[in-house]
Amino acid sequence: MSDRTSKVVAARQGSEAQRAELADRIVRNAPHDGVHACAVPGLSLIRADTPSQPLACVYQPSLCVVVQGRKQAMVGEELYRYDPLHYLVVSMTLPAVGQVVEASPGRPYLCLRIDIDVAVVAELSAQLAPARPVAPDDGRALYLARTDASLLDAMLRLVRLLDAPGEAAVLAPLALREIHYRVLAGELGSRLRALCHADGAAQRVARAIELLKARYTEHLRIEQIAEVAHMSPSTLHQRFKAATAMTPLQFQKQLRLQQARQLMLMEGVEAAAAAHRVGYESASQFSREYRRLFGAPPRREVEAARAMGMSSG
Q1: Are 84 and 147 in contact (CB under 8 A)?
Q2: What gap in Å lies between CA 104 and CA 39, rounded to an integer?
């Protein structure tokens, strides 16, 4: 066996050992299905013992590292599959449809999710060499990159701190900072760094997204959104779709439907009332669009979700 081959085999074995330890620690700290908050702020552990149905949800800016199993996310009409070889980065708020596609009680789907700290991204970006500018058609706010040993090592050191709460207060911020650095220095880190370009295209799209989040119940014209983003309507339409795979108004529609579902699922609000509260004037239009996104009329879909113990979180 050549030296090069020996090094490749050793690296592969090392990564497998890292994932095995990560899996063991996640299972101990996340003993059942669901999203588990941790003593480390910004870190969540996710576990699923069985594959799931496609579930519409809103992804917040975060880094997701799959340790075991597989999941896929649909954004617009684009499908992203992530597994232990790839991590997912969401740089802006995005409505999506997620689905765990590989999981079993013996080998559950296990994932680490870290909230992206924009302040840390900005600070680290200022210290890194200039990145290749993100092309207008290459600025998707969700992307997959290959997981390497250095990122796994940093993740493992962070998760070990869950068993050492006395050390976590001091060392966890350092580990989180290193994880942000590894992502920024990675193959597609320029997309995340683009968020820190003051008044760059990514920042302008992010401002449009914040407006839509804050005023999703209102009837907004594209001209209003473009003014906040400091873009012409046509440029906003192009850049927004490049980042989110949706137009601004499609994005707003998904936010409305997601919020209506939460009202019905978590608060027991009737469909017509939920539709009105999120900005729909026509109950029939709401029902049609809800069925198109969630696959069933509001009442039936919510009843099925309750039976399965699911929500859009």
Answers
A1: yes
A2: 27
Contacts of 133 (CB under 8 A, 6+ apart): 190, 194
Distance from chain centroid for Cα 265: 22
Instruction: Using DSSP, state whether 248 is helix, strand or coil.
Output: helix
Pick the more confident residue, 207 or 76. Answer: 207
Domain containing 264 — which CATH number?
A: 1.10.10.60
Domain that includes residue 217, residue range: 199-245
Please tell me the distance from the alpha carbon of residue 63 to that of residue 65, in angstroms, as a whole number. 7
Of the candidates 170, 168, 239, 183, the residue with the CA atom closest to the CA atom of residue 209:
239
Alpha helices in 78-188 (DSSP H): 118-127, 149-160, 165-184
The last residue of a domain, from among 195, 212, 229: 195
On the CB side of 70, CA atoms within 13 Å amount to: 8
Torsion of Cα atoms, 118 then 123 then 126 then 132, to 10°: -30
Is 313 contained in some domain?
A: no
What b/e sequence results for 24-55 when a residue is b if at least 16 CB atoms lie within 10 Å of its CB, and e otherwise? ebbeeebeebeeeebebebbbbbbbeeebeeb
CA distance 64 to 294: 24
pLDDT tens per residue across span 82-121: 999 899 999 899 999 899 999 999 999 999 999 999 899 9
pLDDT digits (tens, 9 = 90+) for 120-171: 998 998 888 776 665 555 668 888 999 999 999 999 999 999 999 899 999 9
**Which residues are paired to 95 by β-bridges?**
58
168 and 219 fall within a common domain: no
Contact 128, 197 (CB under 8 A): no
